[in-house]
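name: query_chain
kind: protein
chains: 1
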Amino acid sequence: MDVERLKARADEIAERESARLLERTAASKSLFERAMRSMPNGVASNFQAGHPYPVYLSKGQGSKMWDVDGTEYIDFHGGFGVNVVGHAHPKIVEAIRKVADQGIHFAVTTETTVALAEAICERFQLEQMRFVNSGTEATMDAIRVARAATGRDLLVKMEGSYHGHHDSVLFSVVPEADVLGLRHNVDQQGRTWYTTEPTSKGVPRALWDTVIVVPFNDANAVEQAFADNPDRIAGVILEPVMMNIGLVPPKPGYLQALRDACERNGAALIYDEVKCGGTIAYGGTTERFGVRPHLAAYAKAVGGGATIGAFGGEARFMDLVTRGAAQQGTFNGNPLSAAAGLAALTEVLTKDAYDHLGKLGTMLAEGCERAIGESDLPAHAVDLGAKGCVSYRKEPLENYRDFLETIPELFYASFSWMINRGIFMTPGDEEQWTISVQHTEEDVQRYVDAFSEFCAELAS
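structure:
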């Protein structure tokens, strides 16, 4: 199919659907104008911004939510992966209510905090862990522990990956790279690895050469980085399923090769499971692919919707937090988040729940794949448990370079189309859908039907 013609058609659809979206979101526009006076872009986080303004939400129940204009949507955004339990799940609500009148903050460890730590260690096969309050804090602390354990400074990360917004990992990241015009900055200068400028302003120049960038799914590049920087690399951090460019699974043998390389070179393998943990399998990556890291970071789904993060792994690494590697936080393991997280992991996100999520995810991806095939579009669908996406490239992605070959115009046309038909989606072409335990086959069919109509319209 003629790609330029498709782009032109996508632009037509996007223009028409965007106008329709603006017509029916007057209350969001009004709230945006109010919010702009107190918050840049009228939002609490850059990832929440929209053009020309975001749709503001008012409530959620089950698999549904409503915006401030009163429009109902089926939620496939899932709070960027947080809401695998859905909205206002009765067991989560009950857990929070029990704590609400007994004190929601002490800055002292409670029995519920200990019970949640035990649940996280059991589920993800960790020897020990510590709580934090976000995915950013989780990766930040895991990296600090790796550096403390090895006495080294350098960090290897994957090209295009996102690990939070602390200074050490803001190199080769989307979508911030778009703002600075660095999306296509992938010059390896003839090497298998490279260093580069950060994709955020405000990162100290002294850190620019501490982060080594390699392509995802390329174990040889990591081996070469170790060979070229002997005894200097503290760790290798990656999303074991890369979820900042759609959804890219690891090649067979890749994760084990990274583990082996780290072992041989005295470095730590760090999984960023902020998105994977609690979504792709009951036991996350270790269960799904069978390779255990030295350290791992968690957040999002493990809190049942409450604010929480965690990191952990082998005790020989985690012991460093008791021997001079700073790890603290006033809100760490607070009773409110701990209660919600414990209910989520022990009562809601059971092994049976992942069977349900897997069936719905496959139904959704297969439905999208059929629609893509019928309209002969350059796209493909991927699903992995509660997570999945459509990427606008005919062949499956293996790394960030492949993502750069996708056609973002098609995604942006689909976004406004879907949201106008009651399907609430994540706003960037690098994101995915999240299915919750409260979603039904009817919810999934509504997504498939709306997407099928979009594909037919795009191809017409």
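note: The chain has a mean pLDDT of 96.
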